[in-house]
Specification:
Helix content: over 70%
Shape: rod-shaped
Strand content: under 5%
Amino acid sequence: MTEPEPNGWELMRSINALRDSVDKLAAGMVSQATLAIVTAAQKETDIRQDARIKQLETELSDARKTKAQQWFAIGLSLLGLVCTIVAGIVVFSINQGGAR
């Protein structure tokens, strides 16, 4: 036993249901042109962000170098101060020993 052939109204309803489902599916899709625009904008944003990150990394590197140079200068100054004090003590001791 076979099913009876659908009549015109049933075919029309099926076609409308199919059209509605395709319209809903197509509404969620973007066109190729829109996708290209979004992709280009994202690429430009990525390029700018990469450049900003590189700039920040360079600034941080320069800041670290400057801080290292400052601490090196402070260390040299302290070493010079210690050497000056030791030399002063040695000279003072030699002068005191020679005065006796």
